[in-house]
Amino acid sequence: MKKKLLASILAGLTILSLVAFAPFASADRGGREDKRGGRDRDDDNLNLNRGQMISSFVRGLNSGPGSINSGRDRDDDDDDDDEDLNDRDENRGRGNVGAGISDGRIQALERLIVLIQEQIQILLARLNELRGDVNTVLTISSVAATEIKITEAKVVWLTSRSADSKVYFSTASPVDLATARTKSKGGLEFSHRVSLDGLSPNTTYFFIVESKDTSNNVVRSAQFSFTTLSVGVDNAAPILSSLIVTNIASSSAEVKWVTNKSATSKAYFSTSSPVNLGTALTVVDASLVTSHSLRLTGLSASTTYFFVVESFDAASSVTRSAQLSFNTVSAAAPVISVISVSGLSSSTATISWTTDTLSTSKVYFSTSTPVNVLSAQTASSSALVTSHLIVLTGLSANTNYYFVIESVDVISNVSRSSQFSFLTTL
Fold first, then answer.
1. How many CB atoms lie within 10 A of CB 385?
2. Are residues 211 and 251 in the same domain?
3. pTM surpassing 0.70?
4. Per-residue pLDDT tens for 110-137?
């Protein structure tokens, strides 16, 4: 049994080491995009997979062959394991939406390090028991309420030695241990998870956790609290619509969409298609809104970007859009070419030209040369196009006109042509 336990510990440390270094390896492979964006490694799929790896490993330690728990009762609540399985399925694919693009990777890595530290505590505690170290003090740490729903929640914590699990909970504060409701698990564990059910909606509960080891040492935590969700919380995923990209520049763009109920905002974007949610850059806003707007920055000029947007509602129901794309504009001013004059009459003329990027159209014209753009007459269009056409009207017959054309792109780069001329008809 000791050999099996030692093997489990060594295997666990190896897995934790791989998980710990994975973000750095991913960052190295990410190249210029990761450096530029400081992208959010809090991606739902990637971090969930890491969390599941750690969680699966810990469950294996708690329940596998040769473990402390083998042959013992694992849970007083017969439905707990089924609930855990259902909840894992229910939460598959969900990630942290609270981090921004500037510090998301750092926050995700910090959370990962905390997970690893917790699991190392468990492994070291198991190693102490393997060595027969009976002097390790029984302590409780990392107490939290999680998976909070309308009438249920789960309480988790760690202990320094294998011990049983008990939660005292009450709507009154401070919690009276003599009268509070309790929920227990009899199996000896380092990582504890107790399901509380039969709770009231929209209610604050206070709780204390307790663990007792094989030597009957008992330790209790400080008091904590959580609030259940309200009745009538809509568990349907938000409906996403009106997705557009606007204010496209050489290094930025704005993505907007609407949801039918308040939800968070997240955009995954990449120069690769299809967008890989595990490696794509991200921008996040955790505010619950129905009109969503995210600004993507650090983009490359004249580049096609692919993106997917995502929204979580208050009940953690999630929806994602189909993949869309946009092209950033050139960092240089528009290049004007193919200038021509047509449709000449005694009072009109049509000026046309092309630009290499979307831009506006304007013609300065005068009977004096050189054309003074501050005082000359003008005709213009604010539409962003690459094929430009402006009709000049109110001209004098049989008169020489001089003109300069101008185009301005979306980021206010301005281009003007040299001076040209034409003669109106009689």
1. 14
2. no
3. no
4. 666 666 766 676 676 666 666 555 556 8
